[in-house]
């Protein structure tokens, strides 16, 4: 049997695309572009079924206007021109009364209108609806299936339609009640529905990892006809963080003779579907799959050897016969065909937006499987529940582990019913250039769904998730803020009297600290908190000219780290120190020069701006398939996990290079793998930069948000690896950093790859799996983000502070300490350095190992974050070595100057009358302290930059056993209060002058 006979001729075998997802529909021009591609690739069908398009589902009764009719007519004509069968689908099941003759007449009239536009193929879809009949229907029909069959047969006969599709309410095995063979509903559909009507089926589940011969034979027997597969393998409307660029797989071409057709319901982003459609077309022309023993062995090797750190450049076998299907070979061909599209000059409209809105989740008790056809309805206002008694074989993973999948699923707490939120109405037929949103039209569907007290885990049907409007302000969103600094730093004269190499005295110093702290607190992990008059305190400058910032956009992590090699100045041995106190910094980095701190712009200068096949292959690996990560994605996961788990080998290694050059093998291995990891992270930023300058802006706008997200996540991972290389953590670091469930937790990977769970259980895909590896519980931070309005090649870089950053850090402090603005006018010319000496100088002098800076392209350093692991120890050190030097630099006699402002006087008094009185209640829960500053203009452009800094610092704190951090601000400082509140801090204590804000992690 050759490939052509396998297709049972083009007219018989349905192969193409169903636009059946929830969210923003495609445009008329995109659909016409699709028809051309379908013809080019030898496919023959398109089903118009966008769930949230205006008159397809929610307003199915309304006829099309003249303008809408023109667009629909042009679409149908374009399909015919390219020899594509255009199926027009309606979804009337939300609120249709099947026994009402007027309803059936309305349905006929609507389809007759579309028939007049030239349409010759139709579909009725009854998916994602409540399987309950109205009282009137129960009096007429024997069952729900009989009602649907009656209406469908009548419509089919009325239209005299040779091509007709039907989607049942039980459209996959997991929704068949109680099972496929015993389902009364499916058996009724199979026996009563007109034989010429084709029936859609998604497989074992809504999103099926595999389709098997046995499964197809089973449903064929029940339906009395071979099914048409509605394939959700590449659908991504259930998660705004996931995109699927991997090849069509998990379906043997041997299924083709057993099927009536296959329709892929792909990504919401039109331009993201070239691989999905191209590889399906290739699959449909094959008769067999590649031999598992040789052809796919490379793919299997990737999964099993990823831990070894190999980059896994798996190659498909060469010289394969055309009738043999191999996913990697199909992917390679699809990429080659996709690449030229990036060079086609196209403009985009509006800012970068995702076609499916992000949803705020609540941690579920158990994984909940939404009852929707394209995997999860994020925009439809109705809900559906199906009772299911069929059990499924699931790998052994307890509910506590699955609970950690929980960015994942929705849950209902404390309420018996769900009140659907009003939804926007979309009309993709109104304009050929853009989607028109019709907010003025009320949604006609309102329904409440009672949630049972207990839901069995194996087979759970759940309501559509509550939606939080994307414009809502989330508590973890960031604003702007900063604390005082100045360009004049007197740190050199301060440090010189106390500078001493204490590398060889670390152990002795730690014992000294332990004795001091234990004597006072009875424990050796003294809490750390800011003192009201210094550190994280914001000076009274803000009181003189308050101008609170009001940015309300959500924040998220996204930055890029390249390399760093901190050379930090040492503190005196006379200073009371803890593990967090800075040591001389001779670092163990392979990169030992300041020149290693390359910006992402420098990286981009020596690479071509044009994308290559290898670049697109890398992109596809980062966003692969619902049940498997691509090879490069696995390498990133494995390498970071290894580096984090084995960082303890760095402890005890010499801080300075040995004269004989000898390095322990385990240390050398760690350093080499950290360099390889850094290179891989850099390659993602290079890819992102090349991607951002492509001339096809319409394509770039579809994909850039995903590239931006993952580039930001890997930059945070790289920043943490750079910090680990400093070896400022205890020997039991793994007990603090391995607590949360990740890709490497027992059962997680197996459950993910098994296909036994629907993919929305693993919310966020590779992007989330990577961020979960950070040793800090960032909660909702995983899914808060701020995208640029247009593609940007400036990616943020977080890295450890080095002494050469002092001038820039002081400058940023000076420019931001007055409500985010410059404070020059508040100090005389000879005292411009006071703000930074007061607010940031102590941190970068005493605790440089807990200081990070952020760079952004040609802008250089745009922000910093400084912290102290133990506030008590930090202030003891400050009193012993920093304040005496400041008293010499700013003598008390300066107060007699007549031109001093109140702010300048307050700062001088601060140095001479320092008193540490942080409440013990604060220290008990929030022992660490921090201060953060970002240039105001950068915060206005991207409020999430401060959050990126915070996440890396909190990861460093967590690695040292701290789980709480606080800041202290003036009571009247609304600007900084708003800034820290949006970083996840909550008010914990206040007195007449100060407010303490804390955050656990």
Describe the structure.
The structure is a single chain. Strand 12 (425-427) and strand 13 form a beta hairpin. By secondary structure, this protein is α/β, with parallel strands linked by helices. The longest helix is centred in the last third of the chain and has 28 residues, at 665-692. Helix 2 runs parallel beside helix 3, helix 19 packs antiparallel against helix 20 (697-724) and helix 20 (697-724) packs parallel to helix 23. It has 32 helices and 21 strands.
> Which ranges are low-confidence, i.e. pLDDT below 50, for 5 or more consecutive residues?
1-10, 292-313, 359-423, 438-606
Strand order of the largest sheet: 1-2-3-4-5-6-7-8
Sketch the major β-sheet. Answer: 8 strands, parallel, barrel
Estimate percent helicity.
25-40%
Calculate the terminal CA-CA distance, rounded to whole Å. 61 Å
Mean pLDDT: 76
Beta content: 5-15%
Oligomer: single chain
Question: What structural category do the secondary elements indicate?
Answer: alpha/beta
The number of E-state strands comes to 21
Number of helices: 32
What is the radius of gyration? 31 Å
Coarse morphology? elongated
Secondary structure: elements and pairs:
Elements: H1 3-6, E1 14-19, H2 28-40, E2 45-48, H3 66-81, E3 85-90, H4 101-116, E4 121-125, H5 135-138, H6 144-159, E5 163-167, H7 184-192, E6 198-201, H8 213-223, E7 228-231, E8 261-264, H9 274-284, E9 288-289, H10 297-305, E10 324-325, H11 327-338, H12 399-403, E11 417-418, E12 425-427, E13 436-438, E14 449-450, H13 491-495, H14 506-521, H15 541-544, H16 600-605, H17 613-622, H18 631-645, H19 665-692, H20 697-724, H21 734-737, H22 748-754, H23 765-772, E15 796-800, H24 806-816, H25 834-839, H26 841-846, E16 851-856, E17 861-868, H27 871-889, H28 902-912, H29 920-925, E18 928-934, H30 936-941, H31 945-959, E19 964-970, H32 974-981, E20 986-990, E21 994-1000
Parallel strand pairs: 1-2, 1-8, 2-3, 3-4, 4-5, 5-6, 6-7, 7-8, 9-10, 18-19
Antiparallel strand pairs: 11-14, 12-13, 15-16, 16-17, 17-18, 19-21, 20-21
